[in-house]
Design a protein that fits this description.
Elements: E1 8-12, H1 17-28, E2 32-37, H2 40-52, E3 57-61, H3 67-81, E4 86-89, H4 104-132, E5 135-140, H5 144-147, H6 153-173, E6 178-185, H7 191-194, H8 198-206, H9 216-227, E7 238-241
Parallel strand pairs: 1-2, 1-4, 2-3, 4-5, 5-6, 6-7
Helix pairs in contact: 1-9, 3-4, 4-6
The structure holds NADP nicotinamide-adenine-dinucleotide phosphate.
NADP nicotinamide-adenine-dinucleotide phosphate binds next to helix 1 and helix 7.
Length: 247
């Protein structure tokens, strides 16, 4: 079993979906885990589940696209846990549409919540991690950041941007003992993919060699591996967890 006892982790967008599974997975492996979400109520529920496992937790209301909110989130985190060992940038949204019909506000919203947030959160934890000369950052990107997707110009650009940011930060932080990696989920059974039309779902399934959607648990497994000492020689990588969709 992977053991990350005595580590403290912060998961953004941890109130539901993949983020919730990641937060619980890290806690089950021994970490104390703060759950941040734009919806405090969902963060509180997950934090209670983590405490029921015997770990420390903290629900934090934060809009990760907002600089002040991110600063407050990291301050609240460090007040309770002192140091941050693991940051998982998971919060994300979609506002799909063909580019001809895509509103500028939908472009901005997706880029801000998915990509700018990643910049803000990485920057906010960088001082503490550099001082400690260790830390792990895991950015939840997407396969569409690698291969593009019709109707997701904003989303795929934001996820491709996260991958570029991951590689740059991996280089900037390596000498300080901080590892930075991305996880690129394929099509995962979730509220996000529940919105897909039957036609799109069939189209995606046809391209997945393993022939099924993935689970949030499969993504959480990848995050746990990257957060753990098993991955201590892994940085700047994109771990694709997608049933073989991209290869
Ligand atoms: P989800 O169920 O929609 O969960 C996303 C979480 O992020 C929600 O709790 C949401 O809160 C929160 N959030 C949204 N905007 C936020 C903001 N500005 N600040 C803080 N939190 C915010 O999505 P998911 O399917 O679990 O996806 C999680 C991550 O995996 C995302 O980055 C997504 O792009 C990525 N991903 C998902 C899939 C998939 O198939 N599901 C595939 C590839 C990548 P509210 O619910 O209150 O809005």
């Amino acid at each position: 079993m992977i053991d990350i006892a005595n580590k403290s982790a912060l998961v953004t967008g941890g109130g539901r979906g993949i983020g919730r599974d990641i937060a619980l997975k890290l806690a089950k492996a021994g970490a104390d885990v703060a759950v941040s979400d734009i919806d405090l109520e969902t963060a509180q529920k997950v934090a209670s589940e983590i405490e029921a496992l015997g770990r420390r937790s903290l629900p934090i209301k934060a809009d990760v696209s907002n600089s002040d909110s991110v600063t407050e989130m990291v301050t609240a985190f460090t007040e309770k846990f002192e140091k941050i060992d693991v940051l998982v940038n998971n919060a994300g949204i979609t506002r799909d549409g063909l580019i001809m019909r895509m509103k500028e506000e939908d472009w901005d919203a997706v880029l801000n919540v998915n990509l700018k947030s990643c910049f803000l959160c990485c920057k906010a934890v960088s001082r503490t991690m550099m001082k400690a000369r260790e830390g792990v950052i895991i950015n939840i990107a997407s396969v569409v950041g690698l291969m593009g997707n019709i109707g997701q110009a904003n989303y795929s650009a934001s996820k491709a941007g996260m991958i570029g940011l991951t590689k740059t930060l991996a280089r900037e932080f390596a000498s300080r003992g901080i590892r930075v990696n991305a996880v690129a989920p394929g099509f995962i059974q979730s509220a996000m993919t529940d919105k897909l039309s039957d036609q799109d779902r069939e189209r995606f399934l046809a391209g997945i060699p393993l022939g099924r959607l993935g689970t949030a648990d499969a993504i959480a497994n990848g995050v746990l591996y990257l957060a753990s000492p098993l991955a201590d020689y892994v940085t700047g990588q994109v771990l694709t967890i997608d049933g073989g969709l991209v290869m």
